[in-house]
Predict the 3D structure of the following.
Amino acid sequence: MVRLAAILFGAAFTGAVSVALGKLLLRAARVKLYREEEYALAFVSGGACLSLLVFLLAAARLAYPVAFLALGGAILAVGLARAGDRGAAEPLPPLPRAWKLAAGAVAAAFLFFYIPNALAPEVSPDGSAYHLGLVARYLREHGFVPVRDNMYAQLSQGIEMLYLFAFAFGAHPAAAATHLLHLLALPWMMLCYARRFGFPKAGACAAILVFASPVVGVDGTSAYIDIAVACAVFAVFYLLQIWRHTGRPDAMRSHALTGMMAGFCYAAKYTAFVALPYAAALLLLSRARRPKRALAVLCLSAAVMAVPWMAKNWIFVRNPFAPMLNTVFLNPYIYAGFDAEYARYLSLYELPGRAAIPKAVTTTGLGGVAGVTGPLFLLAPLGLLALIWPAGRQLWLATLLFGCVYPLNIGTRFLIPILPFVSLAMALVFARVKWLAAAAAAAHAILSFPPMVTLYAHPNAWRILEAPWRAALRFEPEAPYIRRRLAQYGAVRMIDKHVPPGERVFAFNQMPEAYTGHEIVTRYQSAFGNLLGSILWTPVFEDMHPTSQIWFRWEQRPLRRVRIFQTASHPTDYWSIAELHLYRGTAELPRAAQWRIRAWPNPWDAQLAFDHSPATRWSTQQPLYPGMYIEVDFGRDEIVSAARIDASHDQYGIRLALDGRYPNGHWQALSDAQQFVNAPPLPMLRKAATQELKLRGIRYLLIGDGDHEAADYRELAADWGIAEVDSDGAYRLYRIE
Amino acid sequence: VDAAKPAPRGAQLRHTEESVARFGFLLFPLLLAGCYGGPNWYDLPAQRPAPAGASDQLAMYVAMNDPNAQKHLLRDINRTLEDSLYRWTHRRPEMQFWLDGTRRIKFAMDFAFAEATMKVTGPVTLTFFINGRLFDRARYDQPGSHHYEKDVPPELLKPRAPNVVAIEADKVWVSPDKTSLGFVLTEAGFKY
């Protein structure tokens, strides 16, 4: 019960501090609100402000529970002292009684599932892996530390700052419970908006469509961030709609609040950056007074919330927009080719084509899109009929702008920010036909009720599976519950049991880092992880063996430098070199200490082509384009007559040429004719690979039985030079000897 | 200041300083761009030790044109390298290869039958022995290049030791000088 109390305190304290801070903000912004909408908007806008304050504390390495307690206490004290200043606001026009009862019944039925899922131990994949994995790390380290081996640490984490505040008191479930507060605030704001603008029935219907949606339910009861993002996005829309209809002489304050929320949208999730252009466009379209000043106020307020995240990334990883735009802001922490590869995957996941998206995201959850919105959203095109009303046009404008980033990531939860707008537009149409809105809301509630979703969604679709009241009330201990629901939990327990403190572990796939004190380097989450993965794959995939020898020969002559160019273009192939050897006659030129090397692109890995290890390779880490090169400067004049590249076979599109620089500084093309020779397989390649990991500070490998060639590690452990430390059935922990 | 008269040297300098102070920020990016000299140079990294078996020891797989190939050839393989690429075999060529482990190992071989010899011999069956024990049989009825590859049961192999492979051809072409020629070998050995 103490545990449960701590969880409830963590979430309630975060919520209360957010509301108190928000009320102060709304008071300063002089936005005229109705009583019902004030709490919701105060919670969301105050949350934005609290997030920034927590960011500053984390940046100052003051992320201690006592600091959060003092901050929250001070805000509550000021909030209470000024509570009476605003005076009692008027209530909104009432909701019809039948709708009030219907909405209450739906809320009660779904909260029976939502509350225990939020309060039970966190078992969501991303929540337990990085949303809370990073939050837990920030709390351990009392603030931000450079986390360069995990791209998720570079995403903006505005909502995670709220989770950090709650986590400090109630750990993992306090964060999910804070998200649940957003899940309550979102439909409430929708309802308030609809009541304010005169379509309460449609508002109630739309609120039910959103609140009951399976993906909204499972996301909002986990330590994900999408519902909180949707709240911030809807708040921007809401504030702008209020401003449009109640234009005030001191609207600059309102623009400042809107700008702050738009900036917070970026701080909460990159894809919500659209909030600022949306707000700016609406200000201009609605003919704001003193438009230049209005825009300046909007943008500066947004910058206050957004720029800190860019600055953090600039300082830690040299890319303000990391982990994106790595081709623009080149850095050694995420390979430049990652952008295109990741974007390609996220734009379709495992679906056969774009035509499959509607069914996958509404009904089946297949193809890696994860959750489902509910089949009723297949009727979303009907909502286009709402375009005949001004409110409908505003809703579709917001849908269009906030939805324009959806093709970048077609996961179902990336639809959540536009779900309120689409739902309201649909409900506006439904409400025009007697009983249709009620029928739609009822049908959606029935189809989306957790036990019903199983009937049409794929068994692996991400959704609420049960109402774990025993786990929520801590009658069922945490560890067995997590082990039952989270497949990788046993693996991280193994790590904590066997791996000495401070040691890092390499894994091919994401692990629930929120439940371990060890840092896990995951293959796809950073350039370092990619490099380690590539080293381990080199021995097991024949295409990656460095057994293709590419020879360049010319008449021997004195040279100061040699440069090998790549001259072809290819959309997917990369160029790589395991080793570059230079020859004088038939003898290899001994490598000397004064040699220097450089390469472009990916200059940071250039040394891998000269380390005499068959397991490592320099790679462009970008698809081929003409002008890529690797160059060696001998530091003195050397007689050279040939060059040999040891390369892997997985680079079919490359075209190479070799230039030499004479002692007088003159460059000359020496050879573009190459001889290809297949070298025999290399002995001891496996051991060479694990030794490379060891040299990079990795002494433990976590291999899942489902990982590529997992049997190879198990059956050839001696060849790899590894020993199995422990196994939990699905994962094996190996130590590199 | 009289426009016809050149400004004193100090004034010119002051004027330049003011301009730099006022507009210098515009020049800064240009200066930075001009200074770009390509990516950084790096020193040679620490050199990893050569893997065992890479140079003077037995390998697990060898190409016939490898400088290290001779020590793998035990009998019935011509010592002369032809066209810098292949060697003729006789009736029962034998080779040895080093293996560290014995699991998930394949034996592989790239070889060819000459059209002239096969015209005389007809289809040829090769019988493979590993460490003296029968491993496999394969029949070839076409001249030209062939690739053979098959998983080897671990019990036929010896870990951390030389492993001997013998390939017996059921028919060979016998030249007028009584030299028997089987097939042309390009590379052979064990692979993962």
User: Anything to note?
Assistant: The interface with chain A takes residues 38-54, 59-63, 65-66, 98, 100-101, 103-104, 187, 189, 191-192 of chain B (CB under 8 Å). DSSP finds two helices and twelve strands in chain B. Helices of chain B lie at 9-35, 115-121. Residues 1-17 of chain B have pLDDT under 50 and may be disordered.
